[in-house]
């Protein structure tokens, strides 16, 4: 994946390193050249000095060809502006914004912008949200410890039961939309072709979900 990260503070730097180690094509933007230099020579991605919400800087970073975008600077306003430009102007498929103010985070989650607000788990969570592209997070609870994701039922689960996709404390099927109608499933409910699933997933269980959905290879 081609990924742009705005902000090379603690969270942005760590996220850039993690994604770079997973062989994603990472570009990180920051006004402070010394912050970019902390990534060192082992960082294989691109380091770009500039404002992360500047149109020309974003174009130089290749945002028009970008698969995912994370705004992780220390400014809520800058992150909101950058994330909205990425999503609304350049139509980047996967956008995450780091926000310090939980009230703002809630407002923008309601508007469909995926946000995170904790620095302790933020970098790993950003990587999960950006790279688990097959899972579409529509809402985060608390500080992102649990996400509600939407996924089309994969062919290999047709005829299986809800209990086969349930892991206590990690993964719960909370809704099945079938032929445009939503239903609350039972553990014995049988999946059918064309089902759209809403799953409640613990942050640390994203890889487990991918495995259960058969997304582990080539995903």
Written overview of the protein:
By secondary structure, the protein is of the alpha/beta class. It has helices at 10-21, 33-37, 55-60, 76-89, 102-110, 122-131, 206-212; strands at residues 2-6, 25-30, 46-49, 68-71, 94-98, 114-116, 136-141, 146-152, 171-178, 181-183, 196-202. It has two domains: 2-131, NAD(P)-binding Rossmann-like Domain (Rossmann fold, 3-Layer(aba) Sandwich); 148-212, Alpha-Beta Plaits. The strands form two sheets. The protein has a six-stranded parallel beta sheet with strand order 3-2-1-4-5-6, with helices on both faces. A five-stranded antiparallel beta sheet has the order 7-8-11-9-10, covered by helices on one side. The longest helix has 14 residues, at 76-89. The chain is elongated and about 55 Å long. 37% of the residues are buried.
CATH superfamily of the largest domain: NAD(P)-binding Rossmann-like Domain
Question: Radius of gyration, rounded?
Answer: 18 Å
**Which sheet architecture does the biggest sheet show?**
6 strands, parallel
The CATH architecture name of the largest domain reads 3-Layer(aba) Sandwich
N-to-C terminal Cα separation, in Å? 11 Å
Enumerate how many helices there are, as a single number. 7
Level-1 CATH class name of the largest domain: Alpha Beta
Whole-number total of structural domains: 2
Q: What percent of residues adopt helix (DSSP H or I)? A: 25-40%
Query: What structural class do you assign from the helix and strand content?
Result: alpha/beta
Return the CATH topology of the largest domain: Rossmann fold
The tally of beta strands, per DSSP, is 11
On the 0 to 100 scale, the average pLDDT is 85
The helix-strand sequence is EHEHEHEHEHEHEEEEEH
